[in-house]
Design brief:
The protein is an alpha/beta fold. It contains six helices and nine strands; from the N terminus they run E-E-E-H-E-H-E-H-E-E-E-H-E-H-H. The chain folds into two domains: 2-98 and 172-186, ATPase, nucleotide binding domain (Nucleotidyltransferase, domain 5); 101-163, Nucleotidyltransferase, domain 5, CATH 3.30.420. The chain has a five-stranded mixed sheet with strand order 3-2-1-4-5, sandwiched between helices.
Length: 214
């Protein structure tokens, strides 16, 4: 199965073409841009397809990171994945960024994936050898430390220094697009991918500016 993987959930804008039968990435393109994913995504998809030597019509599934992560970036990726899946008549699968971080770890489970959500909060989820332990949540540092201690788990992700008691400026998370592709190939193709928002958007509608209807 040929999978087109997309990641716009963080600072990277990435695409990859993955052959699940061969277990190989055929082509990929990644650029760390911070923001502006909508302007760059199709360029990365075209580059990944060109490196793979395949037309878009060869894609049999689309995989996309659904968060947690950048509110706007997630919307860009999910909308693109849904649109491509609809146009090609193929399934689209959502992939959690926390699952990607956990899968990138090579040590023994359990592992806790922890993303710095700012405002002294952390996106967190635990994983063992069979998959996730419970749902992805957002909580404070103390709650996350309690979870880690209870499981005796290792920690991966940008919030790891905070959970170790180091009050440093955290670095952005990167979600390897090859792992997004592999998880997407193994994911459940039922339904459509939806953004995984664990906290509401920062932007709020302004009050007092509504136009009265007649």
């Amino acid at each position: 199965m040929i999978v087109l993987a997309i990641d716009t959930a963080g600072v990277d804008c990435s695409a990859a073409v993955y052959d699940s039968d061969k277990g190989a990435v055929l082509g990929q393109a990644t650029e760390t841009i911070g923001r502006g994913h909508a302007e760059k995504l199709m360029e990365k998809i075209d580059a990944a397809l060109a490196e793979a030597g395949l037309p878009l019509e060869a894609v049999e599934r689309v995989a996309v990171t659904v968060g947690p992560g950048s509110f706007t970036g997630i919307r860009v990726g999910v909308a693109a994945a849904r649109g491509l899946a609809l146009a090609l008549g193929i399934p689209a699968v959502g992939v959690s960024t926390l699952a990607v971080l956990a899968a990138a770890e090579t040590g023994a489970p359990p592992v806790v994936a922890a993303i710095d959500a700012k405002r002294d909060e952390i996106y967190i989820q635990a994983f063992d050898q069979t998959g996730p332990i419970g749902e992805a949540t957002i909580g404070n540092i103390k709650d996350a430390q309690n979870l880690i201690g209870r499981l005796g788990a290792r920690v991966t992700g940008s919030a790891a220094p905070l959970l170790a008691g180091n009050p440093v400026e955290t670095q952005p998370d990167h979600f390897p697009i090859a792992i997004v592709a592999k998880l997407g190939a193994a994911g459940d193709p039922m339904g459509r991918p939806k953004p995984l928002y664990l906290r509401g958007p920062d932007a709020k509608p302004q009050a007092g500016f509504a136009i009265a209807r007649v």
